[in-house]
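Reminder: ligand-aware prediction takes two inputs, not one.
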Amino acid sequence: MGYRVHTFSPDSDTPAGHVSDIETTALYDDLDLVRRFARDVDVITFEFENIPAATIETAAEFVDVHPRGSVLHTTQNRLREKTFLSINGFPVAPFRQIRLIEDLYDAAAEIGFPCVLKTAGFGYDGKGQKKLTGPGDIESAFVAMNGSEAVLEAFIEFQKEVSVVCARGADGEFVHYGVIENEHKDHILDLSFSPGNVRGTVCAEAVEITQNIAEAFGYVGTMCVEFFLTQDDRLLVNEIAPRPHNSGHLTFGPCVTSQFEQQARAVCGLPLGSTGFYRPAAIANLLGEIWTGGEPDWAKALSATNVSLHLYGKSEPRAGRKMGHLTATDETPKAAAEIVRRARQMLLEKA
Ligand code: AMP
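Here is what comes back for the chain with adenosine monophosphate:
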């Protein structure tokens, strides 16, 4: 789009840094460097949730930050996020704040088993989560939280997990990509396809909830809402991602405008683009495990038709780390999902 990009990160040699014009490597709490960075750019956005609120506040003294720092502050902590959702009338699984072990005993008695204890901050992809199946699990789950503030929530025997990726402009323009269906493995997103296989009314409701959340935040940029769909077709919001989302990677290629382009358009004050899909699409994540036997033979996955490869350029392929994804398109979402699953499987097969 012709923009020059300047990244700021505590790490060097980062995926975003590889494709930016200038890469500043500094700690988020080095506020002098944050100020210098903010003076140098026209607009700021972020794609990582655990940035300290003070970093964003400091930057915002000099330049617009989208989405606003208060959105980041709310969404980077499960307790604040769930409280925001429930006081604004959005559906969430029953939850309680946990500080002391007594809170956990009381909350487990109210919510019942099974339930899930999650750290309030710094949790993603199932990190900092413990499932409790009975009172015997309370003590060990509490100890595992290591003194961190936590949230206890009901375990939902969901029918499926879905997400809605949307974008909202500063003038309130709202676009969305419909319902994406997500499959997780070991709490980590494994495969997504679009359109998701849900009833039209569920789709409309998921989009309406997403739009209302974006409005309640006065959101500017790309945002994702992740939902549980219960056995009786009720939607519960699990999480909000204040950034382009892993499930929305399937918009990159198969859509007229990707979630990343929407982010750039929204934060730069441009009109949003069409969210139309050329064809149904699916993605399969590539985690660090795939590198166990050395660099995978990418040609194997790419020999399938309609499959494309995206590697993020992360330096170290650790287990559970999202290193890239494969995208496939076909006439139906189910067929696209099958193609992408097979293409990934081919990477794992030895010659
Ligand atoms: P989270 O990091 O909270 O998004 O959790 C990661 C994944 O763990 C979710 O996408 C679900 O597959 C599973 N999970 C988290 N919370 C619950 C819950 N309350 N009930 C059932 N499954 C859950």
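The pocket of adenosine monophosphate is lined by residues 93, 116, 123-126, 153, 155-156, 161, 184, 187, 238-239 (CB under 6 Å). The first helix runs from residue 15 to 18. We will return to this case in the review session.
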